[in-house]
Amino acid sequence: MAGKFSFVSVMGALLVLTIFHDPIIVDAGQGVPEVALFTFGDSYYDAGNKAFLSKNKNPPQTLWPYGKSRDDPNGKFSEGYIVPDFIASFAVADASILGAPAESMTLNQQVNKFRSMISTWSDDYIEKSLFMIYIGTEDYLNFTKTNPTATASAQQAFVTSVTNKLKTDIGLLYSLGASKFAVPMLAPLGCLPIVRQEYKTGNDCYEPLNDLAKQHNEKIGPILNEYAKKPNGGFQFTVLDFYNAVIRRTTRSYNYRFYVANSSCCGVGTHNAYGCGMANVHSKLCEYQRSYFFFDGRHNTEKAQEEIAHLLYGANTNVIHPMTVRELIVFPAKENMRELWEPNKPSIRRRRSSRDYLDLSAYY
Ligand SMILES: *[C@@H]1O[C@H](CO)[C@@H](O)[C@H](O)[C@H]1NC(C)=O
Ligand SMILES: *[C@@H]1O[C@H](CO)[C@@H](O)[C@H](O)[C@H]1NC(C)=O
C-alpha cells in the first residue's frame, strides 16, 4: 500500500506555481527551505489516491475528460492540475471525518497511514513541512441529505462532532511532530453546482448547507489558536478564507474572468453537475474550460485551482490569516507565532492613503 502514496520534495513547487504558473518541481531557492507538503482530506486534494483504493477499476476521475488538458486522466478531480499538484497527497476522494464510503479513507485513517510511514522522514523534516487539511464536505452533504429536517440544535451538535474530530486528528499529527498547518475554511457548500441541481435552487445557493459550512468555519480558527497558545509548543498555522473567496467568484464571476460560476463544465442536468466521466452517462463538456469556475459538480477547474494556490501562497490578511503559506514555511520551527487568528477580519480595508488606493484586496 505504501507505494500508492508518493511524496515529492516540495516547496519549490509552490514557488514555481506562483511565479511561472507551472508546478514543476525545482529547487526552491530564495530562502525557502526544502520541505514536504503533506495533504490530508477529501477529493479536493486527492492527487489520485482514490483511484488506487477504488474497487471500481475505472472510477470517473480516471476517465476522459478528467485530466484532458494535461494529456491524461490521472485520478485528479479537474481537467488538469489541482491545488496541491506538486505534492504527494494523502488526500483521498470523498473522505470524511466521521466515516467514509468503503473505498475511501477517513481523515483519521489517513493520519494513521501517515503514522505508519513516519519513519520515512526525519523529525526535523516533518517539523519544517507543511500539512494541509481540507475536509468536511462529505460529512455535511451526507448530513443534510439524511437529516433534511434537522433542528438548529441538531445541526450545531453535528458541526461540533465534525470539528471535534478535526481537532483530535490535528492534535494527533501535532503529537507526531507536525508543526505547520494550513487549513482552508470550507467552501460555501450550498453553491456547488451538484447541490444547486439536487436541491433545485436554480441560480441561488442552497442556504442550509452554506449555514453549516459557516458554523464549521467559525470553529476552525479558535481550535487552531488553542494549540498555538501552548507555551513553547511551536504550533504554527494559517487559515484561508476559502468560503468568501468562492462567494466572491460565484457572485461577481466576471470580475475574475469566469464566465460561468453557477453550473459545471462537465456533466448532465440543470446545472450540468452530475456524472462527469461516468461511463454510462453522456455528459456534456464545455468548450472552453478556463471560463468555468467549476469543472464537475463539486470540483473546480484547473484555472480556479491555480488561483486558489495563489491565494494560499500570497494573498493578503483578509484572505489568508495570520500569515501566508509562504510565510508559514519560512517561519522558524519551534517558535510560537506572534499573531493568532482573529475572527471578523475586515474583508475590505479602508483606503487611508494614496498608497492604499491601489489596494486590490476586494479582488482576491
Ligand atoms: C451518512 O449519514 C448516515 C445517517 O446519519 C450515516 O449512517 C452514514 O454513516 C453517513 N455516511 C458517511 C459517509 O458519513
Ligand atoms: C447561471 O447564470 C446565468 C447568468 O446570470 C443565467 O443566465 C443562468 O440561467 C444561470 N444558470 C442556472 C442553472 O441557474
From TrEMBL:
Keywords: Signal. GO terms for molecular function: lipase activity. Gene3D superfamilies: SGNH hydrolase. It comes from the Eukaryota. Pfam families: Lipase_GDSL (PF00657). PANTHER family: GDSL-LIKE LIPASE/ACYLHYDROLASE, INACTIVE GDSL ESTERASE_LIPASE-LIKE PROTEIN 25. Belongs to the 'GDSL' lipolytic enzyme family. This is GDSL esterase/lipase ESM1. It comes from Brassica carinata.
